[in-house]
Amino acid sequence: MISLLTLFDIISQWAVPATVLLIILAAARKGVPMYESFVTGAKEGFNVAVTIIPFLVAMLLVIKVFIASGIVDDFKNAVGWVMGQFGFGDHTDVLDLLPLALTRPLSGGGARGVMLEIFDQHGPDSFLGNTASMMMGSTETTFYVLTVYFGAVQIKKVRYTPAACLIGDSCGMIAAVIIGYLLFGNK
Fold first, then answer.
1. Domain ranges, ordered by start, for the chain
2. b vs e for 153-164, b when ≥16 Cβ sit within 10 Å of the residue's Cβ?
3. Which one-letter DSSP state was computed for residue 70?
4. Cβ 66 vs Cβ 114: under 8 Å
5. At 141, is the secondary structure helix, strand, or coil?
């Protein structure tokens, strides 16, 4: 008899290949010229990639300047001082998540680096490690997405999109910290 874990392993191994096979069979059934469609899609994808390169370079430059300036550490110290003034001085270890919270809306790769640094300092199974993982999963690289995708389709007036996205990111980060305290405590 196959255990449930083994069954899930088998399903997860076959999920992607089975999906690709189903797509191929559905296309063949409808008479879609698969190879030509694939080549056309690949060309369009390459053109999009070439179009977004300037936006990616600009975003990476901004991220490097932001991190190298030391503003993240200054902001962390200021928030720690404010927390101390309001009586939250014993919970200042959560400030180690602040660089992640500031980096995540800018860059997924940069945020991953910050998260790995948190793992190195505190451990992946610690309160901060688990909370950092939840923050990564509950937020988005807002400015990266806006820059790349809006830039690729030539949208210049983003109106309320950045504010709505940053509110969503803030809610995700706050929820991650609250759930982190509830599930993992501050050990």
1. 54-184
2. eeeeeeeeeeee
3. T
4. no
5. coil
- pLDDT of 76-117, one tens digit each? 788 888 877 887 766 678 888 888 888 888 878 778 888 998
Here the tokens at position 177 are 């910290």
Locus of tokens 């196959």: 2
DSSP annotation of 140 reads -
**How far apart are the C-alpha atoms of 155 and 144, rounded to whole Å?**
14
State what percent of residues in the chain have pLDDT above 90: 30
Give the relative orientation of helices 161-184 and 127-137 as an angle to the nearest 10 degrees: 150
* 62, amino acid identity: V
Contact 81, 119 (CB under 8 A): no
As given in the structure block, the two tokens for residue 105 are 């809306």
Tokens of 36: 């030509």
- Side chain identity at 48, as an amino acid letter? V
Residues making up the chain, counted from first to last? 187
